[in-house]
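User: Predict the full complex structure for these chains.
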Amino acid sequence: MPEPKDQAPVVRLRGVRKQFGPDTTAASGQPIHALDGIDLDVHQGELVCLLGPSGCGKSTLLNVIAGFVKPDAGTVEAFGRPVVAPGPERAMVFQEYALFPWMTVSENIAFGLEIKKAPAAQVRETVEALLAKLSLRGFGDRFPKDLSGGMRQRVAIARALAVDSPMLLMDEPFGALDALTRRSMQEELLRIWGELRKTIVFVTHGIDESVVLADRVVVMTYRPGTVKRIVEVGLPRPRQPASPGFAAVLAELTALVQEEQMRHERDEASAGAI
Amino acid sequence: MIRALRSLAAPLVVLLCWEATCRFAHVSPAILPPPSQVARKWIEYLRGGELAADALSTLFRVAVGFALGAGLALPLGLWMGARDRVYTVFNPLIQVLRPIPPIAWIPLSILWFGLGNPPSFFLIALGAFFPVLMNTIAGVRNVDAIYLRVAQNLGASSATLFRRVLLPGAMPQILAGLRIGVGVAFICVIVAEMIAVNNGLGYRILEAREYFWSDKIIAGMITIGLIGLVIDTGMARLNDRLLRWHRGIESA
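Assistant: Here is the predicted structure of the two-chain assembly.
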């Protein structure tokens, strides 16, 4: 991967803060500082993983970039323009697939193009190409309920790719898959990324997943969610757990995440004690 | 084949017991005629052309009343389901009117519309209105927010959101509402015909009572049952066709 640091970043976050609540159901009754003082640049063609224990605000951060969540403070820019609303140039792949169950696989993939009023021939062509690219040939007329989890997520990725978004935002997309399927989906994602040169922001709580995928791993702290450290994964691809250097990066990230995990548990314990 | 026989077993046993009771317990045919007599009457009723005429006028009233009721309930339900503010405005009114059974509207409907078809249209429309409305509202409100987010993310306008996400997402419940609505419309048409008009199946069975024609009463009732069955089967078929994607989705 050439380092395109000299170019302007495609996503630029400065001082992003977001607070939810106060949550009356929580024992403390305190507002939740989901994000605080987040500065982050994502560059063209980069695959960045947001990593942290659950509840650290990594999904919130992704939703801020997507335009679903408005930050309380700070600036969010994508492609040089402030983010004010969701848009197809920041296509999102959701954790629970979120395929429209009333549409066939092909209709799901075509959805984004059709609402852009793309000509029918182009829609058909794109759908065919994506079905082939994601090993979904022959499944175009099926409904999502007839597909396995892995295939559903492939359709969701195809749907996001159909709008030819320069960037993919992925919210724990493989979290619900079994280990083997997750493995092959990771490979598939890397293949597509290599082919299409998309910028990808990928939220995960799987440390090994982030080492397999990322150019850079952004480790987040637990409440308030801040950037704890950004780890560059300089390993050549494809990466296997047995590849040289893999274990070292994994250990470094594990230590960082565990620190936060323990802080989280201490907080829970002290909240429980009150 | 065996399945078909099995589902015919219960009606056959009822018919046999009924026939036997009438024959051996010497029940007066004016109180309870045996099924064989009812069948003969039914054929006579059919041959004379009266049955077809009655059934058609009943169906015509159901069609018009249901079209009116559902035709008003659907857009209102979609609007209320999609817009919280609209829901807040209309909901209290609906909650007060909904528990009033359509039958309680009979006196007013006759005062307002006189006799003949108009009051029966009104009652049937009223009966169909609420189940369709309530199910449509609930259907739209129950569409998972994640689908809205996906559509927004891909750049959908609010018109597209409505047409391609809210409407199909709500469709299972809307169709369930329509099915219940047809059922209620059928109840209302019989009641309306007993009161406001002088033809149709409801009128006919009340008329038969005047002459103690119990066989004709029952023949009329069975016709109502059969028509209801046909309509409901048709609705179920429509349901299956439109909701191919939905069958068994909860277990998936």
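The first strand of chain A starts at residue 11 and ends at 20.
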